Model the fold of this input.
Amino acid sequence: MSAQSKIPALLIKTAEKLIQQSVPTIAQIAAKTGIQNIGQPNVELPSACLFNDELQEILKFRNSIVNQINSASKIIETLSKSLDPLTTSVNTAKTSLGIAKTTVTAISTAMLVTPPSIPIPGQLITGLSIAKDLLNGTIPPIITQASNKLNSIKGALDYVNSILSKLVNILKSIDQYLTGCGVSITDSPIINDYAIKINQQYSELENIPSNKEVYQEFTLEIIEEPYSPTVNRRKAVAKNKDNIILLSTPLSFTTNDQTLLNQIKLLIDSNNLKAD
Done:
């Protein structure tokens, strides 16, 4: 196996290590502080603060998470520079992405050896919930469905960057709590530029309507065309930055947006198409 063909596995391994390092700590923080929906738009911060010595402990936890994110970001950024028109088999991508799914079990084990000062049952539930949120639904459907050659490096990169963005959002919730409790983070380590950029990009994508999606710089959209007075047929189209349609799927009677979006992703990847 060439060095280039190992890149998807290296990317996923980096994400796996980051999850194993950070999620148990995040679970401790969430359980001890009482932060609800940590890292989500509907995050709920507790009205009461911990004692100062406990807040300083949370700050140390927070700083360790930043260092872990930054370390992983540097590796991901370096590996991502090898993109271009490289393709590997879907089997490689499937194997690589499968590695990350095992981290839920690893997290469960890690929870059992945490300090007794943290309530184990609540922490375990919180940690597994965070882990599943980080892992489930982030694997690009195109990788699990395609049976031909595609750019699995980009697929793996999408996966790890999605996890990176979620962890940055979690860190934002922790920072909100600490500053709200009067803890200064001015002299603490900050997230590096790559992680910030990725978080901004993925935050923008999350605000795109459900029938639209950005994929490899294409804007994907669902279009309906009348078939009869009461029935429409639908297709997915891929537009470039000038809003010009460059590709479309065949018209279909399906009402499932994601099915059509997955089809056009497959067309983009299998033909190695570019938006510019």
Q: What stands out?
A: DSSP finds nine helices and four strands in the chain. The chain has two domains: 4-189, 212-270. The mean pLDDT is 74. The beta strands are 212-215, 218-226, 232-239, 245-248.
